[in-house]
Automatic annotation (TrEMBL):
Keywords: Signal. Gene3D superfamilies: 3.60.21.10. This is Calcineurin-like phosphoesterase domain-containing protein. The lineage of its organism: Bacteria, Pseudomonadati, Verrucomicrobiota, Verrucomicrobiia, Verrucomicrobiales. PANTHER family: ACID PHOSPHATASE RELATED, PURPLE ACID PHOSPHATASE. It comes from Rubritalea halochordaticola. Residues 133-334 form the Calcineurin-like phosphoesterase domain. InterPro entries: Calcineurin-like_PHP (IPR004843), Metallo-depent_PP-like (IPR029052), PAPs-like (IPR039331), TAT_signal (IPR006311), TAT_signal_bac_arc (IPR019546).
Length: 400
C-alpha cells in the first residue's frame, strides 16, 4: 500500500466523498463506471478474498505477489440481483502470516480489450501478532459527507481492518443505489488495502433489494443459494490477542410485535434462535485469546432503552459465560457508554437492568452525530476510543 502522509490521506478521502455530496440519487447511479473499486473480504486463516463489482466484463483474474512468488486466481462472478452487475470474487489461501502481498486485477472489457486496475496490497493477518488495531463505523445511512468527516479524524495506521456495524446502506432499493454508496465506502475506508467486515443492521433488512445484499460479501456462513441470511461469524485467532464475535440482531422488533408487521418478527426469531445455538457452541470452546469483544448493530443493553430485547433474552446468558470484555453497537444514533455491573432504570418499561458487560454505542448519520470507534488490543491491554466527526474524543475505555 502507498505510504500516504496524513495530509495526503485526508485529501484523497475528501476528493472521493466530495463528488457524491453534490449529486442526487439518480445522478449518482448514472455516474457509476462499469468497473468499480476492488475491496477485501473474509480475511480467514492465512486467506483473503478480493472482490470486484462490475458490469459488462469477463475473464477476471487476480494476480497476487508475495514472499514466495506469484499466484493467479480466476475470479468467479456472483449475480447482483436482477441487474447487469456482478460481484467477482477471487479467494487466496495458504498465505504467509503477517506477510505483505501486492495484487493486480485484470479483465476484458465489453469490447474484449484487456485491462488492468492499479496495484493494491494487503497484509495477511497474523495469529501470533502482539497487537491489532481496527475501526468501527455504523449508521451512516448513505450519508457520505458524514463518513468523510469521520475518516478525516483517522490516520491510516490507526486500523488494519474496518467493521461496518450496520445501517450503512439505507433500505437498499437497487443494485445501482447500493453500489454508488458502497464504492465510496471502499474508497474512504481504504477497502482495497484493508479488509472491510460487515455486520447487518435493521435498515439493511428493508428495501426492495435487501435479499440480494449478501452477494457483496464473503463471510464464513453465507451461502447465496441456501443461506443468504447467515451473517453471524467469529473473527479470532487471525488477529492475535483479539476475539471478535459478530451477530445479526435483525430488525428492531419487540416481543409483542404483531406477526404481520413489516419487521417480520417470525423471521427474526428464527435467525436469532439459530445464532443462539451457535453462540452456545462458541461458549463451550476453550479460547485462549486475551480479549473478547461482542459486535452487533442493535445493542443488547442500552440505558436509553433502544436495544434488541429478543436478542438479549436469547443470548445474554451465553455471552456472559463467554466472558465478553466489551460490546460495540450502534442503532440509536446517539453515542453512549453503558457500564457493566451498574444498574439503570428503564422508566417506560418499568424495569431495571444491570448489564453483565460494558457497551460502547456509536453515533448516527448526521454530521453532528457521526463517530468512529478505534479499538487497540495487545496481550495485556484493550483500549477503545470513540472519536467525533469534529475530532473530539468522546470516550476512552481501557482494560488491563
Amino acid at each position: 500500500m502507498k505510504d500516504y502522509s496524513r495530509r495526503q490521506f485526508l485529501t484523497t478521502t475528501a476528493a472521493a466523498a466530495g463528488s457524491v455530496a453534490l449529486l442526487n440519487a439518480k445522478e449518482q447511479e448514472a455516474s457509476l463506471p462499469d468497473v468499480l473499486l476492488p475491496y477485501l473480504q473474509y480475511p480467514g486463516q492465512a486467506a483473503m478474498t478480493v472482490c470486484l463489482p462490475a458490469k459488462g466484463i469477463s475473464n477476471v483474474a487476480v494476480e497476487c505477489v508475495g514472499p514466495k512468488g506469484k499466484a493467479s486466481v480466476n475470479a468467479k462472478a456472483d449475480a447482483f440481483g436482477k441487474s447487469p452487475w456482478q460481484i467477482w470474487k477471487a479467494r487466496f489461501e495458504a498465505l504467509e502470516a503477517g506477510a505483505t502481498y501486492r495484487y493486480v486485477v485484470s479483465y476484458r472489457d465489453a469490447q474484449g480489450k484487456a485491462a488492468t486496475l492499479p496495484e493494491k496490497s494487503f497484509r495477511a493477518l497474523d495469529p501470533t501478532a502482539k497487537q491489532v488495531r481496527c475501526a468501527f463505523v455504523n449508521d451512516i445511512h448513505n450519508k457520505i459527507p458524514t463518513l468523510e468527516a469521520v475518516m478525516g479524524q483517522v490516520k491510516p495506521e490507526d486500523y488494519e481492518f474496518s467493521v461496518l456495524n450496520g445501517d450503512m446502506e439505507n433500505a437498499p432499493r437497487s443494485a445501482e443505489t447500493v453500489l454508488s454508496v458502497w464504492n465510496h465506502y471502499v474508497r474512504l475506508l481504504d477497502g482495497g488495502n484493508k479488509p472491510m467486515l460487515f455486520v447487518r443492521g435493521n435498515h439493511e433488512y428493508r428495501g426492495g433489494f435487501r435479499d440480494h445484499m449478501a452477494a457483496l460479501f464473503d463471510l464464513p456462513h453465507l451461502n447465496l443459494k441456501d443461506h443468504p441470511n447467515d451473517y453471524r461469524y467469529e473473527f479470532d485467532c487471525q488477529v492475535g490477542p483479539l476475539h471478535l464475535v459478530m451477530t445479526d440482531t435483525g430488525e428492531d422488533d419487540w416481543p409483542n410485535t404483531p406477526e404481520n408487521n413489516y419487521r417480520r418478527p417470525v423471521v427474526m426469531r428464527k435467525i436469532r434462535e439459530r445464532q443462539a445455538a451457535w453462540l452456545k457452541d462458541l461458549a463451550g470452546q476453550k479460547k485462549s485469546t486475551p480479549w473478547r469483544v461482542f459486535v452487533s448493530h442493535i445493542p443488547i443493553y442500552n440505558s436509553a432503552g433502544w436495544r434488541s430485547l429478543p436478542s438479549q433474552q436469547l443470548w445474554s446468558e451465553t455471552l456472559s459465560q463467554m466472558g465478553i470484555d466489551l460490546a460495540i453497537a450502534g442503532h440509536d444514533h446517539s453515542w453512549k457508554f453503558v457500564a457493566a455491573g451498574k444498574e439503570y432504570e428503564l422508566k417506560r418499561e418499568g424495569i431495571k437492568e444491570t448489564p453483565p458487560f460494558p457497551t460502547l454505542i456509536g453515533g448516527g448519520p448526521a454530521l453532528k452525530q457521526g463517530t468512529i470507534i478505534l479499538l487497540e488490543a495487545s496481550q495485556d491491554r484493550l483500549v477503545s476510543r470513540m472519536i467525533h466527526s469534529s475530532g473530539k474524543e468522546l470516550h476512552r475505555f481501557k482494560l488491563g
